Amino acid sequence: MKIVVQLEAFNPGEQLDNFRDQLKSSGALVSFSGMVRDIPGGLAKIKIEHYPGMTEKAINKICSEACLRWELEDIMVIHRFGNLKKGELIMMIATAANHRTNAFEAAEFLMDYLKSRAPFWKKEIGFEKANWVSSKDVDEKALDRWKTP
User: What is the 3-state secondary structure (H, E, C) of 19-65?
Assistant: First the structure.
């Protein structure tokens, strides 16, 4: 399992190649990269904050849960912090499994978690105003499908 929280930009193709090259038995590899998007009125930058140590521990916990729920060979999560401009990569996840369904479902599970529960604080700084980003109802509903009875 690779979990990295970093200030620096990363090359998603290179990261995915490195992740794939260390796999031993998987038949499916799913990846997702999230980018900074624009906001109404225009985005100057997004500021992402976190608490080192706490953030990695929380992501590790949810990745371990994903490994238990789906038969995964490996997981990679890269997430940036600091000031990012429109179009820059914020994060990337990759999941590897014997079968595509496990890889896709685990990737979606991790994305829903990272979007709403990972301990990152995001502030959109626009040309007209600045706002801390809060969880949206649609993001909260997405988490509901992963609850175990």
Answer: HHHCCCCCCEEEEEEEECCCCCCCEEEEEEEECCCHHHHHHHHHHHH
Q: What pTM, to 2 d.p., does this model score?
A: 0.93
Nearest to 58 by CA among 6, 10, 118, 127: 118
Distance CA 54, CA 97 (A): 27
In CATH, what class is 2-146? alpha beta
Contact 73, 30 (CB under 8 A): no
pLDDT along the chain (149 residues), means of 10: 97 98 97 95 95 95 96 97 97 97 97 92 93 84 79
Q: Where are the domains of the chain?
A: 2-146
